C-alpha cells in the first residue's frame, strides 16, 4: 500500500497555485453595450483618474459620451448647447411658419413700424401743411376735415387695389399680371365715353351721383361674373384661357371707346379726359357711404380667408389633394376681386399699375407666403405711396390732378424692371 506523502509547501504557495489555476471571472455587464470609439460610463475596472463631481454624476447615467470632449450624448442633453440653455430659444432657430426665424419676425415688424410712421407723418402733413387758418380754430378744423375726406378716399383705393391685386395674382399663380387686364378699366372708359358721345357734356353730369356710382359698380361686377361663369364653370374651364379672353375683351372695349373719342368735339374730349385719368379729385364724399361697406365686405371675406388663399397659392393639384374645391374657391375670389376693382375704378378712375406696384413692393418687404402678413403690408404700402404722391404733387408741384399719371409712370417703370431683371419673380 502506498505511503501518504505529506504536503510540505507553505500555505502562501498553495494559495498562489490555486489562484493561478482558477479560470478568469468575466466582467459584470453594466447594461450598456460597448461601442467602438464611445467609452461607456460604467466600464468595470476603470483605471485610476476616474472623474469626480459633476463629471462623475454625468458619466454615471450609463449614456454614451462624446469621445472628443466627454459630454453626454443622451437624448435628454443632445438638444442643449454646450453653453447652457435650449437651442429652441436661439433667435435664428428655423421652424415651420410664415416667418421661420426670429430675424425674419424682427425684420417684418420693423418694416411695418417704419411704414406706419410714414403713414402717420403723411396724414399729419396732409392735414396741417399749408393750412391758412390758425391751429385749433374752427376754420382750421373745417379745412382739415375736407382734407381728411381725401385721405379716407386714398385709404379705400389703396385697400381695394392692394387686396384685389394680391388675391388675383394668387389664384392666377402669376405675379406679373393685375386685375386690370380683365377689362374693368376699359369698361369704365367705355361707359364714360359713351355718356359723353350720346349726351355731350351733359353726359358727365348724368354720370355723377350715388345712383350712377352704384350702377357702374353693378355693371362691372356683372361683366366679370358673366366672364368667370362662362369660362370657369364648364367642363373644360381654364384660368389661362379666361385671362386671354379678358385681355382680348378689354382691348376691344378700349378700341371702341377710342373710336368714340375721335368723334367728339375738342371741348367734349377735354372734359372727358379729366375723368379718364385716375385722380382723387374724381371722387365725391357722397360715394363713401356706399364704397366703404362694399370694400369692407369684399376685402374682409378675402382677408379672413387668407388660409384658403395660402392653399390656392400651392397650385390646383395640391389644393385639391388638401380638400379644397379649387374651381369654386377661384370663382369666389375672382368675384370678390371684381367688386374691389369696380369700387376703386368707379371712385377715382383707372390706375392700371398701382396695384402691381403695391403688390410687388409688399412681396419684397414682407418676404413671406402667408396672406395674413402680405395683406396688411400691401395696404400700408399702398396708402403711403398714394398719399405721399398726392401730398407732394399738391404742395410742391401744384399738380394735384396728375397723381394717376405719376403712379402709372412709376408703376410701369417698376413693371419693366421686374420683368427684365435676372432675379426671381
Automatic annotation (TrEMBL):
User: Which segments show compositional bias classed as Low complexity?
Assistant: 10-22, 46-55
Question: How does the protein associate with the membrane?
Answer: Multi-pass membrane protein
What the entry lists under InterPro entries is as follows: ABC_BtuC-like, ABC_transptr_permease_BtuC
Location in the cell reads:
Cell membrane
User: Please, which domain of life does this record's source organism belong to?
Assistant: Bacteria
Q: Which UniProt keywords apply?
A: Cell membrane, Membrane, Transmembrane, Transmembrane helix, Transport
Q: Does the keyword Lipoprotein apply?
A: no
Region described as Disordered: spans on this chain: 1-100
Which residues are listed as membrane-spanning? 108-128, 148-166, 187-207, 213-231, 243-265, 285-304, 331-361, 373-393, 402-420
What PANTHER family does this protein map onto?
FERRIC ENTEROBACTIN TRANSPORT SYSTEM PERMEASE PROTEIN (PTHR30472), PETROBACTIN IMPORT SYSTEM PERMEASE PROTEIN YCLO (PTHR30472:SF19)
To which protein family does this belong? Belongs to the binding-protein-dependent transport system permease family. FecCD subfamily.
The molecule here is called Iron chelate uptake ABC transporter family permease subunit
User: From which source organism is this entry?
Assistant: Brevibacterium daeguense
Amino acid at each position: 500500500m502506498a505511503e501518504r506523502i505529506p504536503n510540505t509547501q507553505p500555505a502562501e504557495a498553495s494559495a498562489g497555485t490555486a489562484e493561478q489555476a482558477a479560470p478568469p471571472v468575466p466582467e459584470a455587464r453594466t447594461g450598456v453595450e460597448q461601442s467602438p470609439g464611445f467609452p461607456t460610463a460604467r466600464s468595470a475596472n476603470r483605471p485610476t483618474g476616474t472623474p469626480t463631481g459633476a463629471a462623475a454624476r454625468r458619466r454615471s447615467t450609463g449614456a454614451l459620451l462624446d469621445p472628443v470632449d466627454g459630454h453626454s450624448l443622451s437624448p435628454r442633453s443632445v438638444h442643449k448647447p454646450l453653453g447652457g440653455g435650449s437651442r429652441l430659444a436661439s433667435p435664428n432657430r428655423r421652424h415651420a411658419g410664415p416667418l421661420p426665424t426670429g430675424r425674419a419676425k424682427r425684420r417684418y415688424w420693423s418694416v411695418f413700424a417704419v411704414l406706419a410712421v410714414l403713414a402717420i407723418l403723411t396724414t399729419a402733413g396732409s392735414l396741417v401743411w399749408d393750412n391758412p387758418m390758425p391751429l385749433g380754430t374752427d376754420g382750421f378744423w373745417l379745412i382739415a376735415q375736407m382734407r381728411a375726406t381725401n385721405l379716407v378716399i386714398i385709404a379705400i383705393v389703396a385697400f381695394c387695389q392692394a387686396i384685389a391685386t394680391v388675391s388675383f395674382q394668387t389664384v392666377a399663380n402669376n405675379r406679373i399680371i393685375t386685375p386690370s387686364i380683365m377689362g374693368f378699366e376699359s369698361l369704365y372708359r367705355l361707359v364714360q365715353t359713351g355718356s359723353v358721345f350720346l349726351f355731350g357734356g351733359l353726359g358727365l353730369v348724368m354720370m355723377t351721383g350715388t345712383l350712377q356710382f352704384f350702377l357702374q359698380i353693378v355693371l362691372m361686377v356683372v361683366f366679370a361674373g358673366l366672364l368667370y361663369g362662362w369660362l370657369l364653370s364648364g367642363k373644360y374651364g381654364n384660368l389661362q384661357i379666361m385671362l386671354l379672353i379678358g385681355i382680348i375683351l378689354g382691348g376691344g372695349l378700349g378700341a371702341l371707346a377710342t373710336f368714340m373719342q375721335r368723334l367728339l368735339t375738342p371741348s367734349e374730349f377735354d372734359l372727358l379726359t379729366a375723368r379718364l385719368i385716375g385722380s382723387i379729385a374724381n371722387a365725391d364724399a357722397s360715394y363713401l357711404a356706399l364704397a366703404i361697406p362694399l370694400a369692407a365686405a369684399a376685402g374682409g371675406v378675402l382677408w379672413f380667408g387668407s388660409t384658403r388663399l395660402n392653399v390656392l397659392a400651392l397650385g390646383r393639384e395640391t389644393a385639391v389633394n388638401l380638400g379644397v374645391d379649387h374651381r369654386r374657391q377661384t370663382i369666389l375670389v375672382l368675384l370678390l376681386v371684381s367688386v374691389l376693382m369696380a369700387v376703386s375704378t368707379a371712385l377715382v378712375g383707372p390706375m392700371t399699375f398701382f396695384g402691381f406696384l403695391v403688390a410687388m413692393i409688399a412681396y419684397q418687404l414682407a418676404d413671406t407666403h402667408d396672406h395674413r402678413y402680405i395683406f396688411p403690408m400691401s395696404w400700408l404700402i399702398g396708402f403711403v405711396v398714394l398719399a405721399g404722391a398726392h401730398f407732394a404733387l399738391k404742395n410742391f408741384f401744384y399738380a394735384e390732378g396728375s397723381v394717376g399719371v405719376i403712379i402709372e409712370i412709376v408703376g410701369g417703370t417698376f413693371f419693366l424692371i421686374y420683368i427684365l431683371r435676372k432675379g426671381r419673380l
